[in-house]
Write the structure tokens for this entry.
Amino acid sequence: MKEKRPLVWLSAVYPVLAASGSLLRDWQLIHVSASDKPHTGGMPQGGARVGVFDLASLKGDQLTRLPDWLDTVPVQHWVATLEPHQIQSPEICALINRYCKDYHTLPLQAERLNAILGHLWGMSELQATASRAKPACYHDFALEGESVAIRHVRELLQKFGRTEESVLIYGENGTGKEAAARFIHDHSPRKNKPMIAVNCAALPRSLTQNELFGHEKGAFTHAMSAQKGRIEAANGGTLLLIGVDELCPEQQSAILRFLQEGLIERLGSNHPISVDTRLIATSTKPLEQLVKTGDFRSDVFYRLGSLHVFLPPLRDRREDIPVLANRMLSATPSANGARRLSDAAMICLAEHPWPGNLRELQNRLRQALLLGENPKIAAEDMGFAANPSENNHHSQELSLDAFRSRADRQAISVSLALAHNNVSAAARLLNISRVSLYRLMDKHRVPHGSSTQPKKDY
């Protein structure tokens, strides 16, 4: 006998018609009375995938308390049932739009409602399977958003993809440098060829040449056959050097000939091999400074390419945080069906300084999904204080004007940074006149000159 699937039914009265009809032949009814205070009693462990709330049965305070119920009962997909005239109410429409995947107008049509619920159950199965097959990583969302900074980055990466030049990608840890490298490769003529990644920080000095260049048979003990190195394996495609700033001077010297001439020699061989490999390198530190301090070879630095791009930290693209958070939530498996952020939680996300950038954002959301007890994610579920102002050393005004002012100042500062403090170029990025930009700089006290450049403490 086919096992029945749990179906939560939230209403003021027991749904006699639904329980006695053909609707529940494939469902195990879990009735939650809206006459009680919100609770999770009787729910299956891990929550339910689908649920129905009967708007037609709710009156007065029950209707007022409905959002509290929907935020408490762990259901992944809700469907509303309501009288035809109720759909004319703006408040009801807003409620359905916020919480529901679908709605059904009365009288109850078992076959149609069954189809809706079955479809939502199937979609939740697909989402669960996809999440198990490939857990989403913050890299998947790193380039999403509509802030000035990330739009400029995407434009640069598309241009870089059309060239064959080497590219150097700067950015703090967790900003998505590998995602940017993958974007360049996927938008290049080499997209159907391999992109081979090398973690420079994990590359032992003694094995650098063997890892990068490969070896011939008999080159050393246990070298029973010839083997290609990473550079040769990327022939025709792209070689990604992750954390090139971690290479010691000896390792930098080893790759110099490859950078200059596109030639390598396997260990145990005197015959150079020509490779057609595009190079993309990432760094968390400014290589120019490392060159000045003698920690990075200038000849290697200049051969890493003339195309550079800086990935902005999350604190410089705060307007993208709601989009990024919701995308991460929708792609991350949940222990309790949670998929929504409370207003206080969203304020905390907007105010947090994000030293760990996108990686930290995803970790906090995962923590909330795994440990939170309610469908709506609270600030405390992510490790923040319940009061948003307590998460910062300085309590900040949360009025609309304050948010607008901060957003304007951020857009101006980022545009000036991207334009290397050229006011005319920054004005073009913002699609305003040069005079207007000067006026806004004075209004928001953005200093004229080099001090507007964000500190790149990679």
